[in-house]
């Protein structure tokens, strides 16, 4: 029997473990630098993320949220290192769920790329000017005592006891995330932060069982996954954001990623979320592909083709509904993640549904959708009467 192809893959629901997302649009985690040293989520986070859920995205992922204070990037980051931080995040997760989307949260340890400025303050290490504003730097940690770039701190190399304690922090934060009601726990394993720093030979020069061979460099992130899986319910999905390659001589490669991803999937990771680069602070030194449309699609495609099972997400200048649909139809990925496009238009997913399926406004919250249906009729009548928004003014002198 021939089963008809779905009219839209983008709007075909996706079931992973205990949840079903209504579509394959994922809000890519985006730091808002909107908290304070408490690391607590506030109304800004609720409204910003709530807009994406009301806008129809199937999976809404909260920004990189630190597992301990020194694991933050900036003073304004969210944290989940204490039980007090659960309640405001639970409020956000509940609101996202109430709109039919699946709530997720990204956990991070910034490692040697911590203690930095917000983008609009320079995106570099904290300076005297920042200290004068009350943003004092904190000591950073990493696999080896190698600074990520000129002017940045030299991190303290973690001992084996530090690593063991750090693994527990990930598991504790994941347990809190599940308690807060998040169905997806996304690990920030990319962009040079601690998990990535252990993988990459550029930042990991260790000579113990956590450095040297590929198996040794993978050891710490794999220990994190094992501990996390044991700490959260089976119904929770784990997504892993990976820099598929460093794009630098002597760095982490696509071939390394395939080996690593097989190990991740074997330990209960559900989705490989493909990004790239960031091994060092100076982005001009990496030679990844040009930042064109869907710029990570070649990497997600390579992961998808090279892995047996598991789902793959892609991100990077996905801006158009037909493009997003083509990413999925061509086999480049199973999930599309959007970042800046959703900042520009939080209702992007609803608009995409109109473009791809031509439906009415049933998918919008009825507080808007009911009126938007009526608006279509009102505008059509004016169009039939030959009127435009400028009709009243067209004869006015300039
Ligand atoms: C404001 C902003 C904050 C970001 N914060 C994070 C983050 O917390 N975690 C992460 O993995 N990526 C972060 N990114 C990267 C995005 O998730 C995304 O991968 C990138 O912007 C490319 O996708 P786009 O072209 O759709 O924006 C951030 C990007 C932006 C624009």
Automatic annotation (TrEMBL):
InterPro entries for the chain: Aldolase_TIM, OxRdtase_FMN_N, YqjM-like
Annotated protein name in UniProt: NADH:flavin oxidoreductase/NADH oxidase
Domain NADH:flavin oxidoreductase/NADH oxidase N-terminal: 10-354
Record keywords: Flavoprotein, FMN, NADP, Oxidoreductase
Pfam entry (one): Oxidored_FMN
CDD domains registered for this protein in UniProt: OYE_YqiM_FMN (cd02932)
Organism the protein comes from: Sphingobium cyanobacteriorum
Keyword Amino-acid biosynthesis: no
Cofactor annotation: FMN
């Amino acid at each position: 029997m021939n089963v008809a192809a779905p009219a839209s893959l983008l709007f075909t629901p996706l079931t992973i473990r205990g949840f079903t997302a209504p579509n394959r649009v994922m809000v890519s985690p985006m730091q808002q630098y909107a908290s304070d040293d408490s690391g607590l989520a506030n109304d800004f986070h609720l409204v910003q993320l709530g807009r994406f859920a009301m806008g129809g995205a199937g999976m809404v992922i909260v920004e990189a949220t630190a597992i301990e204070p020194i694991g933050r990037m900036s003073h304004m980051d969210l944290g989940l290192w204490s039980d007090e931080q659960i309640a405001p995040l639970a409020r956000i997760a509940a609101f996202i769920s109430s709109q039919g989307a699946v709530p997720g949260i990204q956990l991070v340890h910034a490692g040697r790329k911590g203690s930095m400025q917000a983008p609009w303050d320079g995106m570099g290490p904290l300076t005297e000017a920042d200290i004068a504003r009350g943003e004092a730097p904190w000591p950073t940690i990493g696999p080896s005592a190698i600074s990520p770039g000129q002017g940045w701190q030299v991190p303290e190399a973690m001992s084996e006891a530090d690593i063991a304690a750090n693994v527990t922090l990930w598991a504790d934060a994941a347990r809190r995330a599940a308690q807060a009601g998040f169905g997806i726990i996304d690990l920030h394993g990319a962009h040079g932060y601690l998990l990535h720093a252990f993988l990459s030979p550029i930042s990991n020069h260790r000579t113990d069982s956590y450095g040297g061979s590929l198996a040794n460099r993978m050891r710490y992130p794999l220990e994190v996954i094992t501990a996390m899986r044991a700490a959260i319910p089976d119904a929770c999905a784990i997504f892993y954001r990976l820099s598929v390659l460093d794009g630098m001589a002597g760095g982490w490669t696509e071939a390394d990623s395939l080996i690593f991803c097989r190990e991740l999937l074997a330990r209960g990771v559900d989705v490989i979320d493909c990004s790239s680069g960031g091994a060092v602070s100076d982005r001009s030194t990496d030679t990844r592909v040009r930042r064109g449309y869907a710029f990570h699609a070649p990497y997600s495609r390579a992961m998808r083709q090279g892995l047996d099972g598991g789902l793959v997400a892609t991100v990077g200048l996905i801006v158009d509904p037909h493009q997003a649909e083509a990413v999925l139809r061509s086999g480049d990925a199973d999930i599309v993640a959007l970042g800046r496009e959703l900042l520009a238009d939080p209702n992007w997913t609803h608009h995409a549904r109109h473009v791809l399926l031509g439906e009415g406004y049933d998918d919008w919250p009825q507080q808007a959708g009911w009126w938007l249906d009526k608006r279509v009729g009102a505008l059509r009548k004016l169009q039939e009467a030959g009127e435009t928004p400028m009709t009243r003014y067209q004869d006015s002198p300039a």
